[in-house]
Amino acid sequence: xxxxxxxxxxxxxxxxxxxxxxxxxxxxxxxxxxxxxxxxxxxxxxxxxxxxxxxxxxxxxxxxxxxxxxxxxxxxxxxxxxxxxxxxxxxxxxxxxxxxxxxxxxxxxxxxxxxxxxxxxxxxxxxxxxxxxxxxxxxxxxxxxxxxxxxxxxxxxxxxxxxxxxxxxxxxxxxxxxxxxxxxxxxxxxxxxxxxxxxxxxxxxxxxxxxxxxxxxxxxxxxxxxxxxxxxxxxx
Length: 236
Hints:
- The protein is an alpha+beta fold.
- It has two domains: about 5-100 and about 215-230, Alpha-Beta Plaits (2-Layer Sandwich), CATH 3.30.70; about 100-215, Dimeric alpha+beta barrel (Alpha-Beta Plaits, 2-Layer Sandwich).
- The chain is built from eight helices and ten strands.
- The strands form two sheets. Strands 4-1-3-2-10 form a five-stranded antiparallel beta sheet, covered by helices on one side. A five-stranded antiparallel beta sheet has the order 5-7-8-6-9.
- The radius of gyration is 18 Å and the shape is globular.
């Protein structure tokens, strides 16, 4: 059975070009404060336009584990990145309001390839349209399209008008799909999904968007606990 981490997604504004200020802060604390002792086994920091996307990977859902303590050095980290990272939602009052809400998940049956890659896609969404977006993806995921494109997992999150799509794919198939899209028009099934989403989802920055690859966030920091191994978790 394939094991996957439980993921939280944090969305904030970030001063463009400040990746080299924010990344080293986590690079200083992650190796020394042992977040894995509190169930956190990895993290990805990504930037997209004026956004900061923080994907936290845990051994399991805190609702199940009961592990709710804050991360080591949380206050020091928050103070160090405060000049560059600020709240996204208009209703923000405390750090929990920066956590995007997951509203859809799809996983294939059976095991999946070990060599998988995670892509984070960022778009605008019509507030309150989570059910409609989930319906479009559920209808598509019930077809053969995920298998054809090597999709091994999909998670959708929303925070106010921001839509974050975590797409896990077989690395080899993902590369082949990208190459095909660059040399040919997208497959009709893919176009059908894009058209069905059009009333609810749009580019985050329409004036600069040209193709789907322009919606992909850029990873600028990655950490995984060295003394923790996913294959051991999968064997349990």
